[in-house]
Amino acid sequence: MFKSSARLASPWAQRAMATTAATVGLGASYVLYQDSMTANAMTASEHGLHPPAYGWSHNGMFETFDHASIRRGFQVYREVCAACHSLDRIAWRNLVGVSHTASEAKAMAEELEYDDEPDDEGNPRKRPGKLADYIPGPYPNEQAARAGNQGALPPDLSLIVKARHGGCDYLFALLTGYPEEPPAGVVLPPGSNYNPYFPGGAIAMGRVLFDDLVEYEDGTPATTSQMAKDVTTFLNWAAEPEHDDRKKWGLKALIITSSLFLLSVWVKKFKWQPIKNRKIVWNPPRK
Amino acid sequence: MFSALIKRNSLYVATIFTGAFAFQAFFDATLTKWYENHNKGKLWHDVRGKFVEGAGDEDDE
């Protein structure tokens, strides 16, 4: 072994190896340096600004939603968001016992017309809405929605909190994060607005929430951030209507499973006690 | 008392069944009470009065 390496390390071979290593190293450094000079894709602005973590009153293992906030948020959705965004997965009946009474939800449903069964001659008929009907969207289909919004499709809001990174924090930051002016140097496509929290920065939706846009029935001052907080809470409920019950069941499951686990540890120790404590003695046979 | 309950298998099974039923009712009631107390002021039946006049009956939550 030593013999062969001693033979390899002739002055010529040593020089050749050093040159190769230096060339490869310098070449790699150059390529890395050049690569670091340009970074267009996957920058912070491409991902969107990360939202701060807000102290939602439903954060935490055993915290329910603030139902007064859900109700105010529904009002904001209905008076502001519903102009462009649908809420396909929520029916009027879902609001009962959550943010409205049954008679209130019925009254809201009855204000609207839904398709009824055709009459005897096959003519289409309309009927007032009922609790089992779903909340209608603003547009009949996607094409109409795009045509009404310069080609941009307003997403359905039923599951939007689950469908976006950052969830509630992202939504709140987005709704309240429109600056007065886009920063210098930012070129926006026509018909779009600047929002640092939106991936890419150019969002088709403009700022919609302004102070005192709605009038809350419980007298809460309708500031921009109050409305954003309420509508985000409402949309979080829409995405997770099982939330409150889920946390209660989680608490029960934790208590039962952990006490069963501790019981099983005790039973094991109890059953093994004589085995662990016994002493095996061997008496050698006497001669 | 315990020996009386355990001696006959039929009684033993009946004890377990009634015990489980009583326990889950008690457990569920206690935890619901704690949970609703823990979240007081946020639940619908707490805030209902702020929006709706009058107490709700069973059909109109």
Question: How would you describe what is shown here?
Answer:
- The complex is a heterodimer of chains A (287) and B (61).
- Chain A has a two-stranded antiparallel sheet. In chain A, strands 3-4 form a two-stranded antiparallel sheet.
- By secondary structure, chain A is mostly helical.
- In chain A, a hairpin with a 7-residue loop joins strand 3 (193-194) and strand 4.
- Chain A has helices at 2-8, 11-37, 44-47, 67-79, 92-95, 102-110, 142-148, 160-163, 167-176, 224-239, 243-277, and strands at 113-116, 125-128, 193-194, 202-203.
- Chain B has one domain.
- Chain B has helices spanning 2-7, 9-38, 44-51.
- Chain B is rod-shaped.
- Chain B starts with a helix and ends in a 10-residue tail after the last helix.
- The relative contact order of chain B is 0.07.
- The A-B interface holds A 57, 62-68, 71, 96-99, 101-104, 217-218, 244, 247-248, 251-252, 255 and B 27-28, 31-32, 35, 38-39, 42-44, 46-48, 50-52, 56, 59-61.
- Chain A: One of its GO terms (biological process) is mitochondrial electron transport, ubiquinol to cytochrome c.
Question: What is this structure's SSE topology?
Answer:
The complex is a heterodimer of chains A (287) and B (61).
Chain A: H1 2-8, H2 11-37, H3 44-47, H4 67-79, H5 92-95, H6 102-110, E1 113-116, E2 125-128, H7 142-148, H8 160-163, H9 167-176, E3 193-194, E4 202-203, H10 224-239, H11 243-277
Antiparallel strand pairs in A: 1-2, 3-4
Helix pairs in contact in A: 4-10, 9-10
Chain B: H1 2-7, H2 9-38, H3 44-51
User: Gap between N and C termini of chain A, in Å?
Assistant: 63 Å
Helix content of chain A: 40-55%
The main β sheet of chain B shows up as: none
**Nearest-angstrom radius of gyration of chain B?**
20 Å
Structural class of chain B: mainly alpha
Average pLDDT level of chain A: 93
Which outline of chain A best applies? flat
Tell me the name of the CATH homologous superfamily of the domain at 43-88 and 154-184 and 191-262 in chain A.
Cytochrome c-like domain
Shape of chain B: rod-shaped
How many H/I helices of chain A? Answer: 11
Helix-strand pattern of chain A, N to C? HHHHHHEEHHHEEHH
DSSP summary, beta strand count of chain A: 4
Strand numbers in spatial order across the main sheet of chain A: 1-2
Low-confidence stretches of chain A: none
Report the biggest beta sheet of chain A as strand number plus sense, adding barrel if it closes.
2 strands, antiparallel
Strand content of chain A: under 5%
What is the CATH fold-level name of the domain at 43-88 and 154-184 and 191-262 in chain A?
Cytochrome Bc1 Complex, Chain D, domain 2
Q: How many distinct folded domains of chain B?
A: 1
Unreliable spans of chain B: none
CATH architecture term of the domain at 43-88 and 154-184 and 191-262 in chain A: Orthogonal Bundle
